[in-house]
Write a structure and sequence with these properties.
Elements lengths: L6 H27 L1 H31 L21
């Protein structure tokens, strides 16, 4: 049931592993020099703005489709007689 990978598959896996290791080594080099931190500080506000816009768009779409009802639009039910108000 378990088949041994072919030589082509092994070569592809080794190539991918080397690429991954090279990328990680580059990341460690950037982190050591401080460039990575500067890049993250510069890019983080852009990334956060993009994420917030996407969330707002999805929320607006959900509200339009009736999937999501904001709490401020939800009517407050009147307490029923004989029940304890929380």
């Amino acid at each position: 049931m378990n088949q041994e990978p072919t030589p082509e598959e092994l070569a592809a896996l080794e190539k991918e592993r080397k690429r991954c290791e090279a990328r990680h080594a580059g990341y460690l080099k950037r982190k050591q020099s401080g460039w990575q931190k500067k890049h993250e500080e510069k890019y983080q506000p852009v990334r956060k703005a993009r994420l917030d816009k996407a969330k707002a768009d999805l929320r607006a779409e959900d509200i339009a489709n009736g999937v999501f009802i904001p709490m401020e639009e939800e009517p407050i039910p009147e307490p029923k007689k004989g029940t304890i108000a929380v």
